[in-house]
Amino acid sequence: MISFVLKRSLAAIAALSLASLSLATGAFAQDFPKRPITMIVPFAAGGTSDVIARAVAEQMGIALGQTIVIENVAGAGGSTALARASRAEPDGYTIAIGNAGTNAATYTIYPKLPFTPESFVPIAMVAKTFGIVALRKDFPAKDLKEFIAYAKANPGKINLGHAGVGSSNYLICKSFVTAAGIDATLVGYRGAAPALTDAVGSQIDGVCDAAASVSQSINEKLVKGLVVGSTVRLATLPDLPTSAEAGLPEFEAQGWNGLFAPKGTPPAIIAKLNAAARAAVETDAVKKRFADLSTVAPDADEHAPEVLQKLVTRDVEKYRKMLADDAK
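The structure corresponding to this sequence follows.
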């Protein structure tokens, strides 16, 4: 009898504690946010993720009534930033923007990371991107066919820059050289911007980048676009051929950017952040910025956290197969 009563008492205490915790969490979420939020960007300022993050963060901040501060944490293809984000308090005040490189491919390339896919909770996909290969303006090839011929005649001598091993730009490079069947040296940087700077200065032969960060340089003829890994031409680069038009349909480079929070972040806070992200990408300001960058906002049915989670799960497996030889 005493044991039965004790068990019932313990169960009642546990239920009361759980209810109290639930109420406390709900009250906390209701007041969220009460101070600025930090959005970690895994690369240097000026790259694709940074440009997208700043456009979205500004409008999310308006929706939430608080400033969202961008913190650029470059290194190891985005892994340095994700490690920092995974250790943050799960209170919604530290979030990160990621992509197929930082949140999927990295687990194959760096198998000893201090975090796993389960270390993060998806908030929302915020952008769909398109990969481009661009060359220094004085590169001798005028189109993709000539470039591939040149590369095959000079194996290992062409240098293509990217934002670091494991980044989405690295995946563009890997997909491109694999589809083209060429031997090129892939040079990692601490972000897309410094890689592009070296291509503009002809210190490397070209870059693998997203349209969001390289379109302007192509239009200003600072570099010359070679091909876009898309099924349709981009409005901002109407003269740049798609991979199929250029004779290399196997090259596909359509990616995504999404927001993540540390594991344990309350669902009510995730819901608030998701609503703010959804509101942000539907504003005229973000739509115009994305249009200028040849970036596309998610469709209405792609905003849910579950959609981003499915993308991560899919791409973890996809790049596990593609990048097995790159594991460190």
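The longest helix spans residues 2-31.
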